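Hi Q.,

Before the meeting this afternoon, I wanted you to have the EZ4 prediction in hand. No need to reply - just skim if you have a minute. The sequence and ligand are here:
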Amino acid sequence: MKITAARLIVCSPDRNFVTLKIETDEGIYGLGDATLNGRELAVAAYLEEHVLPCLIGRDPFQTEEIWQYFYRGAYWRRGPVTMTAIAAVDVALWDIKGKALNTPVYNLLGGKSRDGVMVYTHANGADISEALDSVQKYMAEGYIAVRAQAGVPGVASSYGVPKPGKAYEPAERGLPSETLWSTEKYLNFVPKLFEKLRVELGDDVHLLHDLHHRLTPIEAARVGKSLEPYHLFWMEDPCPAELQESFELIRRHTTTPIATGEVFNSIWDSHDLIRKQLIDYIRMTIVHGGGITHAKKTAEFASLYHVRTGFHGATDLSPVTMAAALHLGLSVHNFGIQEHMHHSPLTDEVFPHNYTFQAGYMHPGDAPGLGVDIDELLAAKYPYQRAYLPVARKLDGTITDW
Ligand code: EZ4
Ligand code: CO
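Predicted structure with the ligand bound:
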């Protein structure tokens, strides 16, 4: 089998997605996600100008060789743009391989290690009582794990809280919006949120919380310690992780489990975190972390150190990535949990998919390949629109981590 064509579909059905379609001489095609939130066209140009011309004529079954060709062959290693481009190619090739062999991708990754993939979704509210309602709503839909975020009093447009009447979507069209942040107000507030949730919801539901890289290690340690009575499933991204040794300080103070890595793009970003057992869940996603080939290696490395997977799954990760994550999640032994933030109905229509949700678990379906398609005619009606994640400032105007 040979690759005959490779092209991008850039569309914006409520939000931007960059999708790679690789075609073969046997009529089989595969899809890969190449979406890098707020920097979409950088990856599109990288693929179009530097990667896709090198794909024509290659055998799509050679996923490892092609991965190494684009990783080592570029000379310039790692980085979100490069690794997202490589991921798009890699995932599309696994899709082709599955379709050609007439089997779902999970069968090519070791088969089923479990019956379903436990997912968590996002509950949020402007205040504690709205956040409680939101968690209860998702529990009523069958979720057994829910991430809870609430507006911090005195902090306008807190992270994770939607604009009134809208679903939460971090990226906004136009130039970047600005949000505010106060660590002091947050530190005093967050134990009250989880105290209320545990009092009302009991001990069984898994509760998660995202600190979104905003704290210093000692501040994150205080959050972890103050939330211990409410036994979170995890606290996410407690502080920026470029300095991996920061997590030693957090670990020294708290038993609250830690998840990090949604902005990572290679195993080397988490190598020390995993090897020193400084985290419990690795969040690097398939789309930004070099595809299924590299995510599987990362998961297996993590399995040696009691670290489980907890991949990012927000709306900027297209249904193609969601499906890929479910295939990998079904198969790797050290799967932990998968994030599942609902796409808009229009996004779901542009990307028809086989994955399903039932009683807290998702399943990728048994269609050959990934089980996701793209309606190109519909996609063409929603062209790319410039959009950005917000920029955050402290109350005195200093730029801080969003
Ligand atoms: O900031 O998807 O856990 N989820 C998150 C998201 C991410 C965005 C980045 O594109 O932290 O809100
Ligand atoms: Co996050």
